[in-house]
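Reminder to self: tokens first, then the designed residues, so the page reads top to bottom the way the pipeline ran.
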């Protein structure tokens, strides 16, 4: 069931007064650093003059976005499907569908997927890319 919810997001769309972008038309990109992590860039810095960015994130079963820091970006996660744990500034936060987490700029964090994988909607302010 939870994977069906992620599929609904993956096949969703961004609707603006002047345009609609079908998520299915956007490619999945391998994360440049973390194995087993893929991103779909829904809204990029180019779209918002660097103000914010939105990304669908899928983390393969047992894989991780290892400990790192975004010096200038506030990051939020909305857990769509799957399960795992986010370590946010040393605190372990269980990730299950419906959880929203806020990761302030300059705070170390990591995200670890459980055996079913993990699917997130991540937002960055200012934009990540």
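Designed residues (129 positions):
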């Amino acid at each position: 069931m939870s994977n069906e919810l992620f599929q609904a997001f993956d096949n969703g769309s961004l609707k603006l007064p002047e345009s609609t972008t079908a998520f299915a038309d956007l490619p999945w990109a391998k994360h440049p650093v973390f194995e087993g992590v893929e991103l779909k860039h829904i809204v990029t810095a180019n779209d918002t003059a660097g103000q914010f960015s939105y990304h669908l994130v899928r983390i393969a079963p047992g894989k991780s976005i290892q400990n790192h820091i975004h010096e200038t970006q506030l990051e939020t996660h909305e857990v769509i499907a799957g399960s795992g744990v986010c370590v946010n500034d040393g605190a372990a936060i269980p990730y299950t569908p419906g959880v929203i987490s806020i990761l302030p700029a300059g705070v170390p964090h990591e995200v670890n997927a459980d055996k079913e994988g993990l699917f997130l909607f991540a937002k960055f302010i200012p934009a990540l890319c």
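The chain is about 10% helix and 55% strand.
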